[in-house]
Design brief:
The complex is a heterodimer.
Chain A lengths: L12 H20 L5 H28 L5 H40 L6 H6 L28 H24 L3 H33 L6 H33 L9 H26 L1
Chain B lengths: L18 H7 L3 H29 L10 H36 L7 H20 L25 H29 L12 H32 L13 H18 L2 H15 L6 H14 L15 H13 L1 H15 L8 H24 L1 H7 L3 H31 L5 H27 L14 H30 L47
Helix pairs in contact in B: 2-3, 2-4, 2-16, 3-4, 3-5, 3-14, 4-5, 5-6, 6-7, 6-8, 6-9, 8-11, 8-12, 8-14, 9-11, 12-14, 12-15, 14-15, 14-16, 15-16
Classes of the chains: A mainly alpha, B mainly alpha.
């Protein structure tokens, strides 16, 4: 193990990442304002960011394989990952907060409860507060909701099982059984992918058969933004799992030294826990 | 204290690029700190120029220089540039420079990410400032971007939101880096309760940043989808609520206020003991007070919105919770005063700014207490009283503390003493003009002048003119500040390693200017280098 804390003398990838993000955001902003160049800039920026991610991680993995990182560097990575996940938790908290506020305050007040008596009387006398709702104006038209104890319950079981399989993979890694490790990782990737497939088909069903869209008032907004951001995180997590599976096959990890694996496992458990919150507060209650 | 100047590690010092590449590719905490500080100074001038436009328009009643739309863009941009471009990057720059030096670390914990957190900022600000040149102009809804107004402003809003996302990514990465550095990279013997107060306040600030920047990201994302993708988060017709935006925004916004003041408390707590030649009074209570202020910052957000029609219970809760903040803040102010009590005080420029901070920040604190009182706030809300209040805490609070810190550590950075005479002139010129600038705004607010308007009734004319004169003078004073920094960077009287004879702590054990790499081998720390501890008092 290296004696000194490893401090690289230059970093070439960050500026690539900054340029990529900038081009991407410039493109997305133009796209939203109907500029023809928008989609192309967004695409170009995304490609630059992907190249940056690939190059940056390749460099870090290379340095790790060379044994440049000591225990203190490992500690920095671990703590950094924990704080990153905490920031993600707070991002979801904003949307959960919006859901709770809408259900506890905004909708009841529009229905005339408490402080909202005059709002209801003057603006929306016909509106009775209920959940789910598309609001007093029924934005997006009538819709039905996804029943909790069908596909969402199955998806809950799938994600919980994937939390189990990744733990089994970790145990196999700690016993240096590469065959079992790769097998359990593949199972985890498969479960993540099945979850995403079901989630996508649920969206199609919602849009085509139930009339439930992003525009279905506050219910559609909270439903799709919460499950959508969660789905994005599962997608990201699945890609991370695939990379880690490949690294397991390449023999990058040892019994004691496998923080890359653990970081992804933590991330995977995080998306799992967020889903439990979603299942309870978005689907069941 | 032995300091190792020899280059011991193969990988660190192999080659170092020069010119532009040096700054773009750097992973060194001192170089990145310098980048942050220069960026902050440029943003400070830019935001200041916008403030000059505002004060020039308000010099006399009537519309003379700019049209009202542009005036509103100026107030909005001034705030965004000053908050996200000037104050926050200045504190991150100071943390980059000083935290590794203060805790005996070889560098920041995640040096590449450190580079990235800085180099996102110029791009984010290009995206933000670019909107001023769009056909619709820049955002004009105030920096808080309340819907529905902010969503009615044309093409700029998407770019503004994306710029805020980029700034958020930068801040979160910067905060993670600082926290991990503090928790993981301390030299042996540098226990948590031996850390300098600046390190402590940044540890807590970092936590606040990671906790609330994602919430801001969520809030502006909801704005974006409401505007472009048909969601109804803030649309009552769809069952949402525009007031909900204010709740989510200020859940970010209030901790954000403390993000901009806690590191300032840290700087003041470093400077006062040095120039009083006494240990900080009540070190542990300072740590607990900082933590308490941080905790309270999460449960007071709705005092920014007393007049939106919250239920009475809500107003009362947020009023009392807000008043409680005066307790830990009072602990801090009294500890600072006690630190000076019977000290052998001297009044170099950093100390002058620190003393100015204590007096003037406290005035801002008291006007905050006035605003916390619900029935009184019904009168003050959205008037110039609020403007006066938050400029006292932000300009004579945060900015004065940053300037104090810059004067205090500049000799360590450049190796040269700044011009003390000019420094003192800068202080007195700033301290007097800033009061001419902001104190009359209290009276304007109490008399009922609303904020964010380009024109006003004639009875407000005199105070506005006085305020504008103060504003121009304060703006001019900052050109002197730039000159002093430039001069100290180029040469002058050599600074000693300790720089100030009352200074204690690891950062004063390394040479001035601090070489690029310090503490490659961790120093041993005990109470002899950290007299800020209570145990020696």
């Amino acid at each position: 193990m290296a004696e000194h804390y490893y401090v690289p003398h230059t970093a070439k990838w960050p500026i690539v990442g900054s340029i990529g993000l900038f081009v991407m955001m410039l493109g997305a902003g133009s796209w939203l304002n109907q500029a023809a160049i928008g989609p192309w800039f967004t695409l170009a920026g995304s490609v630059i960011v992907l190249v940056m991610i690939f190059g940056w991680f390749a460099q870090v993995i290379g340095e790790s394989e060379q044994g440049l990182y000591n225990r203190a560097v490992d500690g920095s990575f671990r703590q950094g990952m924990i704080w990153f996940i905490f920031s993600e938790v707070m991002f979801f908290a904003a949307f959960f907060g919006a859901l709770f506020y809408a259900r506890m305050f905004a909708v009841p007040w529009l229905g005339g409860e408490g402080a909202g008596a005059m709002t209801n009387e003057l603006l929306f006398p016909e509106f009775d507060a209920a959940w789910p709702t598309a609001g007093p104006a029924q934005l997006g038209g009538d819709f039905q909701i996804i029943p909790a104890f069908e596909l969402p319950l199955l998806n809950t079981l799938i994600l919980l099982t994937s939390g189990l399989t990744i733990t089994l993979a970790h145990w196999a890694l700690k016993k240096a059984k590469r065959g079992a490790l790769v097998g359990w990782m593949a199972a985890t990737v498969a479960l993540g992918s099945i979850f995403l497939y079901f989630q996508a088909s649920e969206y199609v069903h919602a849009y085509q058969d139930l009339g439930l869209t992003l525009g279905s008032g506050i219910y559609g907004s909270t439903f799709f933004m919460l499950t959508g951001f969660h789905g994005l995180h599962v997608t990201l997590g699945t890609i991370m799992l695939i990379v880690i599976t490949l690294r397991c096959m390449a023999g990058h990890f040892s019994k004691k030294n496998h923080f890359g694996f653990e970081a992804v496992a933590w991330y995977w458990h995080f998306v799992d826990v967020v889903w439990l919150g979603l299942f309870v507060f978005v689907y069941v209650i | 204290m032995s300091y190792e100047t020899t280059l011991s590690h193969d990988e660190h010092h192999a080659e170092h690029p020069t010119g532009l590449k040096r700054w773009v590719f750097t992973t060194n905490h001192k170089e990145i700190g310098t980048l942050y500080l220069i960026f902050s100074l440029i943003a400070f001038m830019l935001g200041g120029a916008m403030a000059m436009v505002i004060r020039a328009e308000l010099f006399i009643p009537g519309l003379q220089l700019v049209n009202p739309e542009f005036f509103n863009q100026m107030t909005t941009m001034h705030a965004l540039v000053m908050i996200f471009g000037a104050v926050m990057p200045a504190f991150v720059g100071l943390a980059n420079w000083m935290v590794p030096l203060m805790i005996g670390a070889p560098d920041m914990a995640l040096p590449r990410m450190n580079n990235w957190s800085f180099w996102i900022l110029p791009f984010a600000f290009f995206l933000l400032l670019m909107t001023l040149f769009l056909p619709s102009g820049g955002p004009a809804s105030g920096w808080t971007l309340y819907p529905p107004l902010s969503l009615q402003g044309g093409t700029n809003i998407a770019f503004v939101i994306f710029a805020i996302h980029l700034m958020g990514i930068s801040s979160i990465m910067g905060a993670i880096n600082i926290i991990v550095t503090i928790l993981n990279m301390r030299a042996p013997g540098m226990t948590l309760l031996r850390m300098p107060l600046f390190v402590w306040t940044w540890l807590i600030t970092g936590f606040l940043l990671i906790a609330v920047m994602p919430v801001l990201a969520g809030a502006v994302t909801m704005l974006l989808t409401d505007r472009f993708f048909g969601t109804s988060f803030f649309n009552a017709a769809g069952g949402g609520d525009p007031v909900m935006y204010q709740h989510i925004f200020w859940f970010f916004g209030h901790p954000e206020v403390y993000i901009m003041i806690l590191p300032a408390f840290g700087i003041i707590s470093e400077i006062l003991p040095t120039f009083s030649r006494k240990p900080l009074f009540g070190y542990t209570s300072m740590v607990y007070a900082t933590a308490s202020i941080a905790f309270l910052s999460f449960i007071v957000w709705a005092h920014h919105m007393f007049t939106v029609g919250m239920p009475l219970g809500g107003n009362l809760f947020f009023m009392y919770a807000t008043m409680v903040i005066a307790v830990p803040t009072g602990v801090k102010v009294f500890n600072w005063i006690s630190t000076m009590w019977r000290g052998s005080m001297s009044f170099e420029t950093p100390m002058l700014f620190a003393l100015g901070f204590i007096v003037l920040f406290t005035i801002g604190g008291f006007s905050g207490l006035m605003l916390a009182i619900v029935p009184a706030d019904f009168q003050y809300h959205d008037t110039y009283f609020v403007v006066a209040h938050f400029h006292y805490v932000l300009v004579t609070g945060s900015v004065f503390a940053i300037m104090a810190g810059v004067y205090y550590w500049l000799p360590k950075w450049t190796g040269y003493m700044y011009n003390e005479k000019l420094g003192k002139i800068h202080f007195w010129w700033s301290a007097i003009s800033v009061n001419v600038l902001f104190f009359p705004q209290h009276y304007l607010g109490l008399a009922g002048m609303p904020r964010r308007i380009p024109d006003y009734a004639v009875q407000f004319a005199e105070f506005n003119m006085i305020s504008s004169i103060g504003g121009f003078a304060f703006g001019l004073a900052q050109l002197l500040f730039i000159y002093i920094i430039w001069q100290a960077a180029r040469g002058g009287e050599r600074a000693t390693d300790q720089v100030w004879d009352g200074a204690r702590g690891l950062e004063w054990t390394v040479p001035s200017p601090a070489p690029l790499h310090t503490f490659d081998t961790p120093p041993k720390v005990d109470d002899s280098v950290t007299v800020h501890s209570d145990t020696l008092a």
